[in-house]
Design goal:
Elements (H helix, E strand, L loop, with lengths): L1 E14 L2 E6 L2 E7 L6 H13 L3 E2 L5 E3 L7 E6 L21 H17 L4 E3 L7 E15 H5 L5
Parallel strand pairs: 3-6, 6-7
Antiparallel strand pairs: 1-2, 1-3, 1-8, 4-5
């Protein structure tokens, strides 16, 4: 699984002009599920999302997690994070999990974040969405569960 975490003051996702998810301070997380991803990949991504220390403490150091600061998360499914751009000019998406598997792991990800006590808003899986955000810092972090496990070389 891959994700992009962005520290935000606000974030909102709309579908067909209607707001379907919005948060104040916290994280906008774009989530991509790859073929072969398992519960191990899911657990890694949940743990990092909840506990990664990317919010500033009273000394201005990135020492606090989204959980520590009581922040919210806007989780948006994003299969294009699995784009393969190595050849040609058109990205390939054959590494992305089939929609039914991608949706199941995405929904488990959201449920696990909520179980950790974090307020979570979402987009609509498979929909064409418009995402607006105000990135704080800017702080943008890329996570790849397969790099962490050694399944994909850096």
């Amino acid at each position: 699984m891959r994700s992009v975490l962005q520290r935000v003051s606000t974030a909102e996702v709309t579908v067909a002009g209607k707001t379907v998810g919005a948060i104040g301070p916290g994280l906008l997380v774009l989530v991509g599920v790859e073929q072969g991803d398992t519960e191990r990949d899911l657990a890694y991504l949940v743990d990092k999302t909840v506990h990664l220390r990317i919010f500033e403490d009273s000394q201005g150091k990135m020492n606090l997690s989204v959980q520590d600061v009581g922040g919210s998360i806007l989780a948006v499914s994003q299969f294009t994070l699995l784009a393969d751009c190595r050849q040609g000019r058109r990205p390939g998406f054959s590494r992305a999990a089939p929609p039914e598997i991608g949706q199941a792991l995405y929904e488990k990800y959201v449920a696990a974040l909520r179980s950790a006590g974090i307020e979570v808003a979402t987009g609509v899986f498979g929909a064409s969405m418009r995402v607006r955000l105000s990135n704080e810092g800017p702080v943008t972090i890329l996570l790849d569960s397969r790099e962490a496990s050694g399944d994909r070389p850096r």
